[in-house]
Amino acid sequence: MKRTLFRNQLLPWLLLAPQLLITAVFFLWPAGQAVWSSFLRQDAFGFTTTFVGWANYTALWADPLYLASFRVTLVFSVAVTVLAMGTALILAVAVDRLIRAGSTYTTLIVWPYAVAPAVAGILWWFMFNPTIGILAYVMKTLGYDWNHRLNAGDAMTLVVIAAAWKQVSYNFLFFVAGLQSIPASLREAAAIDGAGPVKRFFTITPPLLAPTTFFLLVVNIVYAMFDTFPVIDATTSGGPAQATNILVYKVYKDGFIGLNLGSSAAQSVVLMAIVIALTIVQFRYVERRVNY
Amino acid sequence: MAGISIDRVSKVYAGGVSAVREVSVDIPDGAFAVLVGPSGCGKSTLLRMIAGLEAITSGDVTIGARRVNDLDPADRDIAMVFQNYALYPHMSVRENLSYGLRNRKTPKDEIARRVQAAADILQIGPFLDRKPRALSGGQRQRVAMGRAIVREPAAFLFDEPLSNLDAKLRVQMRAEIKQLQRRLGTTSIYVTHDQQEAMTMADKLIVLNGGVIEQEGEALDIYRRPATTFVAAFIGSPPMNLIDARVAGGRLLVGSAVVADGVGMADGAVTLGIRPEDLEPGGGGLDLTVDFVEEMGAERLVHGLHEGQKVIVTLPPDYPLGERLRVTAPGDRLHLFDPATGRRLDA
Amino acid sequence: MVENRPWLTLLAHVVLTFGVALVAFPVWIALVASTHEPSTFLSGVVPLWFGDNAYDSYATMLSAGISTSGAPPVSGMLFNSMVMAILIAVGKIAISLTSAFAIVYFRFPFRQAAFWMIFITLMLPVEVRILPTFEVVAGLGLLNSYAGLTIPLIASATATFLFRQVFLTIPDELTEAARIDGAGPLKFFKDILIPLSRTNIAALFVILFIYGWNQYLWPLLITTDDGSYTIVAGIKRMAEVAEADPQWNFIMATAVMAMLPPVLVVLLMQRLFVKGLVETEK
Question: What pTM was estimated for this model as a whole?
């Protein structure tokens, strides 16, 4: 806390005004609207609106498509998180071994962070294009007939790879920072105790890397659940047959394209609850990290 | 130029903790006053109230003829030197010096003149275009002084300005600050926890403890006639010996030893204060078992025990020392305090 | 640590080379594809080496676009993206700086409430409140405008917290010295706080520029006339048509141009980029 404060009473409000105004108009009001309309139902022509209580929510739990979307989201998030974090960890451990060349590799690995998820989607979509895509071609020669337009598994694989590809750079940076914060004296002590490099890695690194890993876990789940919207939209549009229709995408589709406002609003509220839970987990953890 | 008067000033924090209690003191125009005391004694709080950085709970602070309680720090016509210097890291030395003047819309040529004058006095001319981080501790200290000087304020306030310097530089800088203050004749209030610094610098020494003034006056007077056991123990290094003693039938006794005769005081327990350098070998007086000796070079400090009570004696470095040592002190160098209140008895 | 295990070092190099290739491969393919003639993509597989149609692909996209695919000239979309990214980055930084200043350096009623209101924005990503937010923007008549594109995105709890953290580390004595030097709150803000936060501001700018440039869903909704498309959102509209009418060289040229500005920012300002990334996650 600051010892020295300015005494003005009006000035702080003027300083906060832009932020609070934008928050109120574009965040709180719409969020309130979403909650409110999740209790309403409009008829097909938009003429009448009736209050239906929890009906939109109960309808969601009874809707096999929505439950399927939950499953899709789960599979997608876990796959993206594991792939992006696993790849990043391997690369980070390799870079950590190299002293001089490390920074060059780092530069060459981090730049995809800057690539828009939508563009990442387009790039992989092109490479997997069943007619002319290079990867589809490679797979055909290996005897697999790739077609993400028809095959649900292929479509999921495509979006997972595209989403994970972009996220590797982010995880990589944090893993490298985590590894470099492990004091050299610890490894030296282990080396003096006669542990070889592999044994040393497995006994010393995992516990000390756990905080970074947990932090990245939350960040990656949030990324996979919310920030991958453009990847899906630019490639599969949720298809084929809902196979890649993750929750965030379904909210958009049901609301903007299906115009099923009540249901879309209820889905929004469920998502909000998930974000709030994840944010709380993240901040609890950050608080603990500060106390270390 | 202005005197500073502090009248029954108190500071009570929101939690009810009172840091300064009804402190009154007058600092004459041009004087160098030093507030000294252990940490938490309220000296910094008092200084910050004078500066306007801390609200005054009750009482009045007057600078010159103005009551400044409700004025902003900028309007009190004071300049302050902070412990960590608080130089603006992103500004050059020149910009640091001139920032306050620019804010006051001082004409450009006047700013240039004053900055140059301060730089000459402090010998920081060659660094004027450097950033503070490119300077040594002593140089930063000078820049902090310069920032105060260019303002030509009614008073300088110093908040432990030397405590971040190493011992040698500290001794050098305190002489420089003192000389500078003499030369400029600006009323100054200087806060420190270092009693030696306080002794050597003060025209007027103010000893604070627990938010109240224990004693104020000229440094030597305080050294010679401490008003309380706290002051006796705090001012002087090594500290004054404080020994449990008693008066019986006009004789002053420490345990079984008679230290003085003809004490015109009622019988009862007293605290006897004797400075280590006032104790001389020989005679009757205290009979010490020598515990250990600290060699200071110019002198040696003998730590001894007289019937279980610790006594420190300063002796010449070549004084031959056995296992036992008898010491005595002239009668006019004995200080008697009330053991219950700690106040001086022969006041 | 002095250690000599050549095979482990070699393994590290192999792993990293593979990683770099993996990361670069899609972009390589895109670059190559953008240099070929449209006819190349009618059959067979995408070539792995450059063709000689680069100038045509890029020049066509930059100046004319492809009207049949509903793609306006890329130069216009690039301009829109640049404006959007800069407005978002500058806007977020500006309102977060003033908010953090108010929260750290003042005590006023409902300060805690204001703090929480800003915090809540973290929990409401645009994806979960698309429809109502769209309605608000439409109601305010901000569709197809830079204001509609950027203002709803510039509230930022992350940036506010970052600056709050930065301000809390600035010693109190500096504030006190400034007050004695006659600086009021706004002067202190302008002369001391902002200059002292400038590396944090720069680092955050890098991250927010990328964030702004890569916006997808929001521009897609807010921009309905092709003069206000941004490149990241615009490329999807092109790709939708590509299935039927393969003009992959044009699409990939556009993709490359969409990637280039933010990637350049990361490569040229890597130090600030890393600093910004690490700080915003604290």
Answer: 0.87
